[in-house]
UniProtKB/TrEMBL annotation:
Keyword Coiled coil in annotation: no
Listed SUPFAM superfamilies: Pentapeptide repeat-like
Lineage: superkingdom: Bacteria
Record-linked PANTHER family: THYLAKOID LUMENAL 17.4 KDA PROTEIN, CHLOROPLASTIC
Presence of keyword Cell division: no
Name of the protein this chain belongs to: Pentapeptide repeat-containing protein
Entry-linked Pfam families: Pentapeptide
Length: 295
């Protein structure tokens, strides 16, 4: 049972919050004497209005922020590991260096958010809106991005090893120098995307659309590009050893100095055409000339 002194202290605290006439959580935190680096772990903040919040380096591990409005908030360095941020609005938020590992970000609005060097390992970003977000240098290894919208996103230097990107929209995305080792990009829309010097070794690119994509210097060793569209793509200097190109479409692609070896799914006519276009076949004797893909 609460004693008189504690009750008086609580009433004084409530009056202070009411008098402040603010819905800014950071101000309320100061009035209440709370420590944001310690007192919010596991908190229930569902549907809370936190727009413009300033809570850098706060501890929100395991917090429930489902459907919360956190638009434009300053959350750099915040620990959101295992937090529930599904359907929350984090558009325009600053989440640089934030820890979002194992977080639930299903259907979350992260459009134009700053996620530079954020930790998103094993995060669920399925159906999330990441249009125009900055994820430069972020770690999204083994994250689920199935059905997410990443149009115009910056993922330069990001790690997406083993990540599920099946069917995602990556039109005009900056993916230069990003790691997509063994990533699932099946049916992904990569039209006009920048994949220069990206590592796509072992990636699943079945029926992906890479039309007019920049793949200069990219490593596609062991990738499955069966049924993929690379019309007008720039593959100058790219490495394509052990690639499956059956039913692939490379019409109009720049193949100058692209390195091929142990390729499956192409015929002799196609190989000769690619050589004329500047491609380098490192193992002429071992090249498999099976069903012809579209040149």
């Amino acid at each position: 049972m609460i004693d008189d002194d504690s009750l008086q202290e609580l009433q004084s605290l409530i009056q202070g919050v009411v008098k402040a006439q603010t819905d800014n959580l950071s101000e309320i935190v100061k009035i209440a004497g709370l420590n944001p680096t310690e007192d919010f772990a596991g908190a229930d903040l569902r549907s809370t209005r936190l727009r413009g919040l300033v809570l850098s380096d706060a501890d929100l591990r395991g917090a429930n922020l489902n459907a919360a409005n956190i638009r434009g908030a300053l959350l750099s360095g915040v620990d959101f590991s295992e937090a529930n941020l599904s359907e929350a609005d984090l558009s325009d938020a600053n989440l640089t260096l934030a820890n979002l590992s194992d977080a639930n970000l299903n259907c979350t609005n992260l459009s134009r958010a700053n996620l530079i060097r954020a930790n998103l390992i094993c995060a669920d970003l399925s159906s999330a809106d990441l249009r125009g977000a900055n994820l430069g240098g972020a770690d999204l290894s083994r994250a689920n991005l199935g059905g997410a919208n990443l149009g115009g996103v910056n993922l330069s230097g990001a790690s997406l090893n083993g990540t599920n990107l099946s069917g995602v929209n990556l039109i005009r995305a900056n993916l230069s120098r990003a790691d997509f080792i063994r990533a699932n990009l099946c049916l992904a829309d990569l039209i006009c995307s920048d994949l220069s010097v990206a590592n796509l070794s072992g990636a699943d690119l079945i029926r992906a659309d890479l039309s007019i994509a920049d793949l200069r210097g990219a490593n596609l060793s062991g990738a499955d590009l069966s049924g993929a569209t690379l019309c007008g793509a720039n593959l100058g200097g790219a490495i394509l050893r052990g690639v499956n190109l059956s039913e692939g479409n490379l019409r109009g692609a720049n193949l100058k100095k692209a390195k091929f070896a142990r390729i499956s799914g192409i015929c002799e006519k196609t190989k000769l055409d690619w050589i004329r276009r500047g491609a380098i076949f490192e193992d002429l004797a071992d090249t498999s000339f099976k069903e012809c893909c579209q040149c």
